Structure to design on (239 residues):
């Protein structure tokens, strides 16, 4: 239903510089926002090419751990399969392997502990999730994502609950070096900075999301060649 007012909840990220001066580096955390928002009538804006890049990104494959403990009755396999699906939504769009799932953990996301962790935990009301990136120069050297236990979570887009895959796909976009977008035309992109109960469309990347990812990590060459016979390649065709 279009033009219905929705309560849009903020998806945030923060960047913490590790070097050279840890003491002066404070996480950048935006004010939470809770606003009535009208869904744009245009239903094709996932085809817009908007993206924004953070000033930093990983230069190596990200080994990440998942803490599956939750209050919502979601099985460990359900949490792990869903979050790894979110990671794969990005990985399948670039030849660089961005993400590598390393296993479960009991750690809580939010502190620099040498592991990149996704977990539920306490956050202020109005914020669904926060990704925190620790940086050294233009490189990211650590990342965590905390999901807010204040809200209920679901794997199937249930009303009144937040969709885990949708939110995690957005948060992993930050891990890839992408910024939030807040323009109305960006509503249907994964990196749109708000979400609300029951929405699942941010599971799927739009054109701008893919262009942003490929601006950081490169794209598969898609060149059609004129040979009248089958052309076999073990990888990218680069004639
Ligand atoms: Zn965000």
């Amino acid at each position: 239903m279009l033009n219905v007012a929705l309560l849009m909840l903020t998806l945030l990220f923060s960047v913490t510089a590790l070097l050279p001066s840890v003491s002066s580096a404070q996480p950048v955390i935006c004010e939470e926002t809770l606003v009535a928002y009208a869904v744009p009538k245009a239903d094709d804006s996932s085809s817009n090419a908007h993206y924004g890049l953070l000033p930093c990104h990983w230069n190596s494959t990200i080994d990440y751990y998942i803490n599956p403990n939750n209050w919502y009755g979601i099985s460990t396999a359900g949490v792990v399969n869903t979050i790894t699906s979110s990671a794969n939504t990005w990985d399948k769009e670039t030849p660089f392997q961005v993400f590598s799932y390393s296993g479960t953990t009991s750690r809580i996301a939010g502190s620099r502990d040498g592991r990149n962790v996704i977990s539920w935990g306490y956050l202020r009301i109005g914020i669904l999730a926060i990704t925190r990136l620790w940086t050294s120069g233009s490189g990211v050297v650590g990342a965590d994502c905390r999901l807010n236990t204040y809200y209920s979570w679901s794997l199937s887009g249930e009303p009144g609950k937040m969709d885990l895959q949708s939110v995690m796909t957005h948060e992993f976009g930050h891990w890839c070096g992408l910024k939030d977008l807040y323009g109305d035309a960006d509503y249907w992109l994964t990196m749109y900075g708000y979400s609300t109960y029951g929405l699942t469309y941010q599971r799927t990347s739009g054109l701008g999301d893919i262009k942003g990812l490929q601006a950081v990590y490169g794209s598969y060459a898609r060149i059609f060649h004129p040979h009248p016979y089958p052309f076999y390649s073990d990888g990218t065709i680069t004639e």
Residues 8 and 196 are 5 Å apart (CA to CA). Residues 1-8, 17-37, 222-239 have pLDDT under 50 and may be disordered. The chain is about 15% helix and 25% strand.
